[in-house]
Amino acid sequence: MNQTLEKNICNLPDGVANREVNDLHERAKRHLDPALRYACKSWHKHLTDGHTIRTPAISSALHRFLEKKFLFWLEVLSVLGAAREAVDALDVTAKWLEMSPTLDLINDCFRFVMGFFEIISTSCPHIYHSALPLCPRKSIVRSLYESHARPFARIVRGLPDSWGSSIAVARFASQIYTAVWSPCSRFIAILLGERIEILDAVTLSRVTTLYSPEGCLSSQLVFSPNTRLLTSYGGHLMKFTSWDLQTGGLVSSITLGLPGRYWPLLIYPTCGAMVAGLHCGKPIFTIFICDVLSGTHKYSHPVEGEFLGEIWTHGECLRFATVDSGSMTTWEVGFASPHTPTPVECLPIPDNFHPGRYELHPTSSRLAFATERSLVVWDAQHSKFLLQSTDFNYSTVWPMSFSSDGRFLVCSTGSGGIHLWKESPTGYTLHQKFTPNPSSLSYVRVSPDGESITALDGWDSPSDGLTILLWRIADSNTSLSDISALTVRRYQGPLIVELSSDEVLAAVARRFRDTVTVLDLKFGITRLTIDTGMGVHAVGVDGSAVVVVGEGKIITWSLPAGNNVLNPRAGVNDSVLTTTFNCPSFVLRVLRPISVSPDLRRIAIIGRYKYYQGPLYLYDVPTGNLLAPKFVREPFTVSFSPDGHEVWSDSYTGGRNGWKIAEDSKSNAIGLKHLESRTGPPGCFPFQSSRGYEVTDDRWVLSPGRKRLLWLPPGWRLDHKDRRWSGRFLMLLGSKLPEPVILELEE
Asked: Which domain of life is it from (predicted)?
């Protein structure tokens, strides 16, 4: 590792966050004169103020600045708490230059700032400790500044080659229930159970947090037209809760007291003082209008018919639509009117429309919907199709979204791809195909200004939290072939990594797949690739051999000596020992905890007998013999002690049990003797570090002395069950990672 102690611009200590430097303000005053502060925060404003003429000399000066001073500029902005200025500066400069040889460099610098905005804002020193070492291999910024990196962690495996398609990613530990754009496209509000986070719509950094006095919030959010107010609506008793976004204070809370179903629909009129929501019932649904500022319920409007899922504003009135017998009827009622809604117009809809997966763009009377075989956009105003796409099976299309002007339509195909359609003189044409990674996306939305797209990831495993991803429409140009590859990756099994006890080798595999790779951790090269001929369930490795556990088989391979063989491979015929063992097949076909002892002599498997208990199976590798199973309460994982003489289980509730592996020297019989201890020896459980390293809740990797060694980017922020420790190594094994991440930490 690079241990150079070259200091940053304000001589901040290594391995700290800016907030931990008590005299940060004084250091900034001492090292950053007013002229430098102004220049760093405002140079781009002078460049784009309309008076500066594009010349080769300016482009050349910009190029030299980014080539030589880019990271130093970020240091200043980090210390000043003005990292957001870097985003604006690079964004407007790229647009100002239009076509220039410097544009590639500017775009790469922009991706660097966006990808590491959180760490640039949080810690000036970690621009060099974390951001630069984590930069993709083929990044221009990395090639220019790699010599400046001062990492406290070596990335053995898992560093990407290039930037991903999304320009910003934010991960949250709790489930995201909804995400909405503000009308000005500057903010995104996300609902996280008992709180609402307001995010910057460019960086996805937190702007403010809103809380409900009653605890759990409702499931629908809407901004007022001027983005001054935010209202949540829904819940068990149909409640409107509103906040002032400038102060963060609660404005009003209105409870209608109507249990039952509701449509998650909510709007403000242009005046921004009233709010309307809808309660669904059959054959009658009801629209409620409330005054947000006074906190009072004003009017209720019951309507009979089949509601078409949209309400919208028209001047100081609200409108909604119903569907019946091949036609769509638009209704209108004033926000301040006690009168019943009146029909405005009746428009035809196509015969193949079925209320299910659809999106209505009210002002242009366009209706987008999915059938079993196509995606359709219907212009009800002119009775014609604007799109009838049959490229994909759209029967699994998730909710669609129009931009506010109707120019763009975005939808998820349900199989990992996102399709963006753009209005043309002849209808809608496919503009771009996204191949996001990961691919389990939902709630895909295009921003009101039509410049960005957001999506939520993680609905397939909400207990692990969710991720919000952001793309710029102009930057997302991934091909269709990549979508297919991504879909395949999604269904590969969980990652497996086991290290040898001397921390020299690592065995890497995917569960249920048939390949095991043995890596040299010092040089990051492949020592051996094994085609196992069976689905892999667990692996073990030491300096001379690899043990692979499959369904009913344990196979051992010898490792080739030295590193002289180029890309060595081995198959089943090259193995030195195959042992069969009798384990119930249902245990191995699902994700049961399996562990191989450090000396490769035994394997331990936790089964499931009932929900609250399961058997511990212990097998001898050379013979395949089974010890009598021991029943374990709430089994979560199983591990051997570092010396291989004990086996331990950990429960979902934190209770632990250990057994000593006792051998009878006369009969060679092996038994398990229960241990009184309830802690387990250091290094026994792989999700805990035996040397005192730690991953904090805000995803810093800390040394035993509490120094901040590394900031984990959002894609690497995995729960403890997807982390493995072995000595000074940390391994990240999220099933959506293309390969395991292996980090060697500073001692």
From this structure: Eukaryota
Q: What percent of the chain has pLDDT over 70?
A: 83
Neighbours of 371 (CB within 10 A): 19
Within the chain, all domains assigned CATH 2.130.10.10 are found at: 168-355+442-489
CATH T-level assignment (fold) for domain 168-355+442-489: Methylamine Dehydrogenase; Chain H (2.130.10)
CA quadruple 643, 644, 647, 648: dihedral positive or negative? positive
Lowest mean pLDDT segment, chosen from 36-50, 75-89, 144-158, 410-424: 410-424
Distance of CA 675 to the CA centre of its chain: 41
Pairing of strands 220-223, 206-211: unpaired
Delimiting residues of CATH 2.40.10 domain(s) in the chain: 492-580
Residue 93 token pair: 């400069």
- E strands, 677-732, in order: 694-695, 700-702, 708-711, 723-726, 729-732
**708 class by beta-carbon count within 10 Å (0-12 exposed, 13-18 middle, 19+ buried):** buried
Judged against a pLDDT cut of 80, whether residue 34 lies above it is answered with: yes
Q: Give the DSSP H/E element, type plus range, for residue 423.
A: strand 418-424
Instruction: Say how far apart CA 309 and CA 263 lie, in whole Å.
Output: 8
Tell whether the model's pLDDT for residue 42 goes beyond 60: yes
Provide the pairing of β-strand 569-570 with 525-531.
parallel
Task: Characterize the bridge pairing of strands 694-695 and 630-633.
Answer: unpaired
Q: What percent helix, strand, coil does the chain show, rounded to 5?
A: 20, 40, 45
Structure tokens that stand for 691 in this block: 């040397």
Provide the residue type at 349 as one letter: I
- What the block records as the tokens of 33 is 């004169």
Calpha distance 119→617 (Å, rounded): 45
- Residue 307: CB partners within 8 Å, gap ≥ 6? 263, 278, 280, 285, 320, 321, 322
Closest by CA to 321, choosing from 290, 364, 362, 286, is 362
Nearest CA among 167, 56, 45 for reference residue 116: 167
Tokens standing for residue 213: 């006095």
Confidence tier at 483 by pLDDT (50, 70, 90) = very low
- Rounded Cα gap, residues 674 and 682, in angstroms: 18
Orientation of helix 56-79 relative to helix 103-115, angle to 10° = 10
- Asked if residue 509 lies in contact with residue 493, where contact means CB atoms within 8 angstroms, the answer is no
Contact call for residues 329 and 321 (beta carbons, < 8 A):
yes
Q: With beta carbons less than 8 A apart as the criterion, state whether 399 and 359 touch.
A: yes
User: Residue 470 carries which side chain, given as an amino acid letter?
Assistant: L
CA distance 470 to 111: 12
DSSP 191-243: EETTEEEEEETTT--EEEEEE-TTSS--SEEEE-TTSSEEEEEETTTTEEEEE
* Mean local confidence (pLDDT), 402-428: 83
C-alpha 670/C-alpha 625 separation (Å) is 10
Q: Over the stretch 493-552, which tens digit does the pLDDT of each residue have?
A: 688 999 999 999 999 999 889 999 999 998 888 889 999 999 999 999 998 999 999 888
User: What is the distance between the alpha carbons of residues 339 and 318, in angstroms, rounded to a whole number?
Assistant: 12
**What confidence score (pLDDT) does residue 399 get?**
67
Which residues have C-beta within 8 Å of that of residue 210, sequence separation ≥ 6? Answer: 195, 196, 198, 230, 243, 248
Triad 435, 441, 446: Cα angle to 5°: 80
Distance between start and end Cα atoms, the chain: 10
How wide is the angle at C-alpha 597 spanned by C-alphas 610 and 643, nearest 5°? 120
Give the global pTM: 0.80
Cis bond before residue 438 (omega within 30° of 0): yes
SS (H, E, C) 285-318: EEEEEEECCCCEEEEEEEEECEEEEEEEEECCEE
Burial label, 303 (beta-carbon count in 10 A; 0-12, 13-18, 19+): middle
Q: What tens digit of pLDDT does each residue of 93-126 get?
A: 988 887 777 889 999 999 999 999 999 999 999 9
